[in-house]
Amino acid sequence: MASTLLLSPNPTSGSIWADLELKNPSQFSMQIFDAVGKMVWQKTFQSATTQVRQELDLGGFAEGIYLLKIQTEDGIISGRILKQ
Question: What residue ranges in the chain does DSSP mark as E strands?
Fold first, then answer.
């Protein structure tokens, strides 16, 4: 499982940074779900290091609460995002 996830700034009105520390460099996927559980964004990444910093552009998203789910080879980590 990923050891840490920091989302900032949170709440956001546009972009948010996801700072992730992985146990091992690996492929991972990020998914964003809206408040009713519908997936609104998904992307797969390949990391060459254990430290990942990924910008997520939420500018086109409606205001509300979203769930960011990150799936790695070691497990799943998630965090809530408040879009204002």
Answer: 4-8, 15-21, 27-33, 39-46, 51-57, 64-72, 75-83
Q: In the chain, what's the furthest Cα-to-Cα distance?
A: 34
Say whether pTM exceeds 0.85. Answer: yes
Q: Is the pLDDT of residue 78 over 70?
A: yes
pLDDT in tens, 33-60: 999 999 999 999 999 999 999 999 999 9
Q: Which domains does the chain have, with CATH numbers?
A: 4-83 (2.60.40.1930)
**Separation between Cα atoms, residue 70 and residue 5, nearest integer Å:** 9
Task: Classify residue 70 as exposed, middle or buried by CB count within 10 Å of its CB (0-12, 13-18, 19+).
Answer: buried
Q: How many CB atoms lie within 10 A of CB 65?
A: 12
